[in-house]
Amino acid sequence: xxxxxxxxxxxxxxxxxxGEDDYALKELNHVWGDxxxxxxxxxxxCGKSTLLNIISGLLHPSRGRILFNDQDVTGQVxxxxxxxxxxxxxxxxxxxxxxxxxxxxxxxxxxxxxxxxERVQAIAKxxxxxxxxxxxxxxxxxxxxxxxSLGRGMVREDVNALLFDEPLTVIDPHMKWELRxxxxxxxxxxxxxxxxxxxxQTEALTFADKVVVMHDGRVVQVGTPEELFERPxxxxxxxxxxxxxxxxxxxxxxxxxxxxGGTEIPLGADYGRPEGRVQIGVRxxxxxxxxxxxxxxxRLKRVEDVGRHKIIRCDFEGxxxxxxxxxxxxxxxxxxxxxxxxxxxNVYSDDWRVAPLSRKGVAA
Length: 364
Prior knowledge:
Blueprint: E1 4-11, E2 25-32, E3 37-41, H1 48-56, E4 63-68, E5 71-72, E6 83-86, H2 98-108, H3 113-126, H4 142-154, E7 161-165, H5 173-190, E8 193-198, H6 201-207, E9 210-215, E10 218-223, H7 225-230, H8 235-240, E11 247-250, E12 252-254, E13 257-260, E14 263-266, E15 278-282, E16 287-289, E17 296-297, E18 299-305, E19 309-316, E20 319-326, E21 337-340, E22 346-349, E23 352-353
Parallel strand pairs: 3-8, 3-9, 6-7, 7-8
Antiparallel strand pairs: 1-2, 1-4, 4-5, 9-10, 11-15, 12-13, 13-14, 15-22, 16-21, 17-21, 18-19, 19-20, 22-23
Helix pairs in contact: 2-3, 2-4, 3-4
InterPro entries: AAA+_ATPase, ABC_transporter-like_ATP-bd, ABC_transpr_FbpC, ABC_transpr_MalK/UgpC-like, Mo/tungstate-bd_C_term_dom, NA-bd_OB-fold, OB_MalK-like, P-loop_NTPase
Family: Belongs to the ABC transporter superfamily.
EC number: 3.6.3.-
């Protein structure tokens, strides 16, 4: 197990990068705790796999260092870093049996046969392949082969870190849930440092202790699922996390009031007078149908009943405003106003969250 430190880390695939735009991975300075489970979450092309490959040693960074437990491993090859990595598509030895595939990492390190047999049996049970241990991998389906890859990554107990690069892509939906549950159980039992790359917010939020959200080659927030939901530090986090994502509206903010298209929206704190492109963000869960003449004037577009609740889709001067209502709620056809919970409204300047001010004018 290892604490992983990213020290002034950056990477470009160009031989002579000029400006910041030439970098697939912008400068990163982060410390990820020993024994914690992290998910790298973001859209395709945001730098997730690049970062994972640098951590594993498959890619040497253009700049900066990687440290495991404060030891510089930047120049070490993958084998010297003592990590296990599971890739998006299955990597198995077709001519070997399932048992021999799972046992390979242990036998390669000279583990005792009794220990190998015990671990292989335990992992086979975890991935649901006890009944095919004697079969050759060649004839198995793609999802069965990926389960072997997962099992081979998990069979060692002494690794510094377990790295997963979108490992459930070829797994059927029911098995995805089972394997995520097993991975979480494995983490709780052995305390490995785990890093799990995905573009699926459900996978990230259900697997990880902390989610590392990436956008355009940057880490824009590291936090618990609750922190990402309640206090997105960047508008991308608000948009990407949640279904639907956070409502974002251009505004002018004066103290504890936001002015949106001439309508005053109360805020839960004093934000001063932020400059730049100012927006307020509020999640649909904290938007309700207004009674009477108060609130923000909107145009109802449609109502989507998704079983557990209803999504109310509205428009405000070309900007989407979504609200979530309980399943049994009646949504009037002439709905024309919504209100925001002041305590749940975030303020953003040039996409970054503005910290509220205290009564003395000092950032809280």
